[in-house]
């Protein structure tokens, strides 16, 4: 596997949209024998992408099995497995948060958020065996896995990584890599969507969704030795610019725009910077390139070819009544233009539809993926 240690997989954040990544990963299985190990020994994930990445790392010795396990979980998802969705506990949680706001700051000991995601913690503990990561590192099926979270204490992007002994921590402006033994709390921190899910305390710092402060999403795979990075995002096609809003934007629409920005915009900026560096290096001779201490890095980006928001609207009625009520209060209805629904719809039928889109897109670009991964 050493010859493949320059290949990395980067899975971005996106809540329930991350089901799309499983479809693309399933398309790649058609290129490999059933007992083949992970074709990208460096795996980096943020938010829901971090959960997918960790599951793949646990099954790095058999890529097909890892993808099948992930597919089974996503297609059988129910919101109650991720956050409290029944009417009484849902609004009881919200009421408790409001009461806390009336207390003095010294008495506020409970996290404040829109939803209580304790069920997700139990699901992760039940389905992920973190000891497998160590075994896959020892056998060479895995080089490193990185999970990125955002520190509310330092405002830095922190990439918690577990990898081979040769890998060292790194420190850059507004970002750092911390070598550690990964566990469920790192995943809970990385996937704590701002305002929606509560922050998570790790040691002496509070962390939230890894996309909040992630100014350079490509930093982790590059620091871990990647030279070719396959990026599976969840950004849907841009809407028709001629469309104009007729009404004042609702809270749900504003929240959706914020999440779209957090999960997608920094990747575009980082890719532009990477392409400029690659172009500059191509103009230098060998001696000059060596003096820069930089290396060219290739990227292949795959994003949904269909409107995920429309898929979410089609499955709106499948959401529990309590969540539908909360969404209506915020202005998120089946015919609304908010993308908030698509981030929170952890519902099996919707996730299956999104995975099907990922499989379709992956198969359409299979020759391109094969060439990029040198399979």
From TrEMBL:
Residues 9-222 form the PNPLA domain. It comes from the Bacteria. A motif (GXSXG) lies at residues 45-49. The keyword NAD does not apply. It holds the Pfam family Patatin. Coiled coil: none annotated. GO terms for biological process: lipid catabolic process. PANTHER family: BLR7027 PROTEIN (PTHR14226:SF57), NEUROPATHY TARGET ESTERASE/SWISS CHEESE D.MELANOGASTER (PTHR14226). This is Patatin. It comes from Bowmanella pacifica.
């Amino acid at each position: 596997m050493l010859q493949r240690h320059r290949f990395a997989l980067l899975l971005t954040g996106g809540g329930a949209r991350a089901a799309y990544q499983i479809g693309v990963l399933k398309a790649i299985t058609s290129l490999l024998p059933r007992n083949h190990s992970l074709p990208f020994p460096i795996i980096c994930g943020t938010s829901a992408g971090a959960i997918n990445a960790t599951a793949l790392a646990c099954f790095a010795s058999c890529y097909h099995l890892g993808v099948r396990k992930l597919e089974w979980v996503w297609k059988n998802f129910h919101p109650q497995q991720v956050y409290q969705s029944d009417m009484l506990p849902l609004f009881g949680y919200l009421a408790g948060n409001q009461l806390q706001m009336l207390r003095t700051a010294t008495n506020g000991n409970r996290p404040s958020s829109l939803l209580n995601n304790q069920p997700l913690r139990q699901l992760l503990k039940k389905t992920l065996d973190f000891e497998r990561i160590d075994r896959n590192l020892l056998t060479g099926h895995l080089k490193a896995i990185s999970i990125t979270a955002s520190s509310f204490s330092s405002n830095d992007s922190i990439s918690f990584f577990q990898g081979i002994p040769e890998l060292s921590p790194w420190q850059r402006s507004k970002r750092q890599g911390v070598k550690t033994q990964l566990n469920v709390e790192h995943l809970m921190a990385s996937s704590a969507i701002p305002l929606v899910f509560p922050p998570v305390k790790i040691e002496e710092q509070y962390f939230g969704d890894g996309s909040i402060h992630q100014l350079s999403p490509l930093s982790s795979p590059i620091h871990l030795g990647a030279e070719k990075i396959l990026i599976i995002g969840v950004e849907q096609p841009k809407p028709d610019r001629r469309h104009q809003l007729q009404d004042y934007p609702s809270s749900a629409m504003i929240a959706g725009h914020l999440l779209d920005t957090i999960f997608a915009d920094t990747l575009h900026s980082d890719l532009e910077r990477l392409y400029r560096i690659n172009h500059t290096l191509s103009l230098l001779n060998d001696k000059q390139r060596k003096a820069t201490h930089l290396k060219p890095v290739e990227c292949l980006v795959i994003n949904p070819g269909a409107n995920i928001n429309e898929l979410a609207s089609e499955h709106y009625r499948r959401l529990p009544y309590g969540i539908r009520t909360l969404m209506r209060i915020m202005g998120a209805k089946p015919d609304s233009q908010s993308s908030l629904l698509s981030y929170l719809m952890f519902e099996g039928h919707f996730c299956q539809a999104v995975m099907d889109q990922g499989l379709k897109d992956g198969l359409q670009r299979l020759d391109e993926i094969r060439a990029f991964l040198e399979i």
